[in-house]
Amino acid sequence: MTTFEGPPLDSTPGIGALTLGGFLRDVAAAHGPREALVFDDPLDDGRTHRRSYAELAGDAHRLARGLVAAGVSPGDTVGVVMGNRPETVAAIFAIGLSGAVAAPMSTFASRAELAAMIERTGASLVLTQPRLRRRELADEVTGIAADVAAAAGRAPRVVSIASAAWDELLAAGDGLAAGDGLDAAGLDAAGLDTRVGPDDPALVIFTSGTTSRPKAILHSHRAVCLQSWLQAAIFGRGAETRMYSALPLFWTAGLNTAMGATLAAGGCWVMHEVFDAGEALALMARERVTEPYTLPHQTAALAEHPAWAGTDLSALRCVYGKSAFARHPRVTGDPGWNMPVGYGLSETCAFVSGYASTTSRERMRIGAGPIVAGTRVRIVDPSDGRPAGVGETGEIAVAGPTLMLGYLDGAAPIDDDGFFHTGDLGCVDAEGVLHFEGRTTEMIKTGGANVAPAEIEVQLRRLPEIKLSRIIGVPDARLGEAVVACVVLRGGSTLDADGVREFLRPLVAAYKVPRHVLVVDEADMPMTGTDAKVRDDALRTLAVARLASAAGPDRSNSATAGDR
Known about the structure:
The chain is an alpha/beta fold. The chain has helices at about 20-30, 55-70, 85-100, 110-120, 135-150, 165-180, 220-235, 250-265, 275-285, 295-305, 360-365, 455-460, 495-505, 535-550, and strands spanning about 5, 35-40, 45-50, 75-80, 100-105, 125-130, 155-160, 200-205, 215-220, 240-245, 270, 290, 340-345, 350-355, 375-380, 395-400, 405, 420-430, 435-440, 445, 450, 465-475, 480-490, 515-520. Among the domains are: about 340-440, Luciferase, domain 3; about 445-564, GMP Synthetase, Chain A, domain 3 (2-Layer Sandwich), CATH 3.30.300.30.
């Protein structure tokens, strides 16, 4: 069987330690006094907090000792329900140092979704914060813990930053440090730095799949750290990098591409807890940001903001081609830098293939780049598993050091040779470039987030007014794809689009709530010959035509990603 391989890891420069504790030790030793994180804290009246690499390592070590003193053991799961904050970064490293598994959970999620995540991970402890914008997060998570206790007979301990419980956790860490004779350099005296190896579990990432609920993906220390080292090179980051991003740490794009790859390079992450265009522009100008790492709809919001043209973005260098940043009147981008193009999955902790930022734009138009170091790809016929050769299209199957350990509560499609069958179609050409050619799955990607149609359809079955529903994605200039609910109502129903969305809002994250709701006559719903399944391609054509023919903006059917 033909196997396509990236370069060997042992000849790939720039790869350091492959545990979270070792990674932090390496970057702190190399860049100790340099600025690692900048954050304007809404919980502290917007004051600016700055953490050096040495301070970040100290924060993580102190918290790790506190976790151990509080009874957290190797293999335990610690939930993290927090926005982008220095404490969140320190917590993820601290959990890894303690030997436990970090489970960052979506702050976009509804209460019901958060409860399911906490229950599925079996978290013994959940770290959170008092508030996130208008959401009383600590109270909500505490209530969820009580609900879990009532249902399962056990309750995770909930600790909110800026609380007495948080102070007690840190004090316990100080006590352990004193009792074990630790110095400020690290954790070796307590054995924390050697409690795990690269192949031990480190992280749970939740992502929408083709099932009716998000998949819980378990990753090793090696996967998280290796992707961070590799992506630092792919993005061309260095000690001079000042990267802005509001991408959350419960997505691999936030965890690895934004945070991990910036720290691996010795750069500074200018953090933003929740994206706001006006705040983002002010941060980029004040902090002399060199690289904005934003999703397309965020970039569009920045360019549409009244302050856009007048904001001093002259420090930006890592901007590309025809992006709005490259067209800004004060920006002169680096002509040798282009936004990396690649193919990746949550199951591989991000990149499977990719072009480095030094690749020309012309070259980047050809496929999704060469396979990254250490990764192996096979192309197989999805119907019979027949191997495909160079240039032949089939299902993409992936193996390698950043492939997940598995799903928490379900079998993963990993074959006997250790290859994960992605459900995506593609090929590898004669030059070793991977080409992504479409999805065999039904996943909708909207504003950078994955939405599983089945997850929403399961909820809509609870509405008695709906006889049949189908969730599809249609092209959207800003979001990539927009979520559309096509519903057949039962006779006499007066349910409208707003009613459908109001029903869904407490049950699913805001970005999963359909942007458009189309009521379709049962006779017009395109079905297979046996009337057993909806023909999605025909339904998508119908939906696009209906939306295009609408007079003016479809304001009654708008629930954009900005509602997150």
